[in-house]
Amino acid sequence: MNGNFETLQQNYRQALVILFICLITSLSLNSYAQPAPAKSIPDFTFYKMNGQPFSRKDITKSKKPVIIFFDVTCDHCQKELKAMSDRIEEFKKAQFYLVSMDKAPEIQSFMSKYASKMVGRSNVILLRDLHKQFITLFMPVQYPATFVYDTDWKLIRYFGQNSKMSDIISASNR
Fold first, then answer.
1. pTM exceeding the 0.70 threshold for the entire prediction
2. Which of 90, 92, 111, 117 makes the best surface tag, with the fewest CB within 10 Å?
3. What CATH number was assigned to the domain covering residues 45-173?
């Protein structure tokens, strides 16, 4: 009988240790949880395709900034920008800022292949993130990341992969 009691105590101690480890792990994971996407447009410096710097002060206040972070090899980015390009006329109040960390020729090739109806439009600006600051400043969750801001640069809505184009259009036109 004494052996059973000792076994029970040992099992109880092991259960407490496991519970303690789970609690500590849970608290640690919460402290490293993905922060929310940027609630307002942060200060940044990206570069136009011609190499000229482009910063927050260059963003227009007359239209809603729609900032899209993409990668040329991302199939979700290809699909989303293709769908956006196909419906570009529906974005009545949007000024697009397409940001990538890729090289200029790769971005231009991507645009020609997947977003050709956006190329050369006055409301679409292609930008390169040469200093790899987009992720730390805007805190996207995945590619593509679409941020729709109001004209005061406050976040209206954030969209990740597989978002409905009608939702993005609606957020940018309201």
1. yes
2. 92
3. 3.40.30.10
